[in-house]
Amino acid sequence: MRKIPLCIPYTGQEEIDAVSEVIRSGWYAHGPKNHEFEEGFAEYLGVKHAFSMNSCTSALHLAVEGLGITGEVILPSFTFVASANAVITGGARPVFADIRYDTCNIDPESIERLITPQTEAIMPVHFGGQSADMTAIMEIAEKHGLRVIEDSAETIGGTHHGRLTGTFGVGCFSFYPTKNLTTGEGGMLTTNDDELARKVKALLAHGIDKSTYEREDQEKAWYRSASRVGYNFRMSNILAAVGVEQLKKLSEMNRLRREKAARLTELLEDIPEITPPVEQPGNTHVYQMYTVRVAEGLDRDALVRGLNARGVGASIHFFPPVHHMKPYREGRYRQDELPVTEKVIREIVTLPMYPQLSEEDLVYMVESIQSTLAEIS
Question: How many CB atoms lie within 10 A of CB 299?
Answer without folding.
Answer: 14
